């Protein structure tokens, strides 16, 4: 099976993760802009970060046969620094229409403060203006309240629920999200949030329509192979292969493909891996390492460059 991970922070991960993900069947991934573990203090750090997402990180993923996309936005946690948030909002229009950007995100609420609400609304308006999907981060605290508020505000701003992916759902929120016509995304974290056994039962109960799963793997304890591992468990527990394909591949493509930036042919007809290539003079290789260069349609048909 082929998989898409529609929420994974690969800037925080290693090349070993990329190799393992591709071997497990992940062919495409979406990296939402998020916070880096500590607050940023200058708008220039956001500019460089967004540039990295649409530049070197896309290149790095391609070196392992994975198509990289991203969503661009001001995360809710850092929206509380209003002077900085104002500067970042001026940057967003410069990036949201770049190649490989499939949405505005991840945005929404963290502590559900007035500042978070202000910049969430401004970014919803931006997404509507440029006709991009929205990727919503729902809060860890007061989850249901924040999820309902996120959807209510999106509707208030005239967004079509079919253009909005509500992320980090659980059993408490899934029905509300699906009943309102939004996409329901679920993060599979080890030992917290939504484990793959719980996810299997949600798909058994609600079916596969408008549901997708992701790893949200980042700099914390997380698993970039959460999507293929959950697919394997679902099949073992009797979930149909069609349902597994929908929640681990097709629904993510349908939702984010509305951006016009993401098509299945991007990876099915991708250029062969060529690790001898460089990005702005930089290589993923270190001294003495041998680049992998595919020479045919079969990814195992490679030659060695010396």
TrEMBL record:
It holds the Pfam family TatD_DNase. It comes from the Bacteria. InterPro entries: Metal_Hydrolase, TatD-like, UCP005295. Belongs to the metallo-dependent hydrolases superfamily. The keyword Hydrolase applies. SUPFAM superfamilies: Metallo-dependent hydrolases. The keyword Cell wall biogenesis/degradation does not apply. This is Hydrolase TatD. Signal peptide: none annotated. Residues 281-306 are annotated as: Disordered. It comes from Adhaeribacter aerolatus.
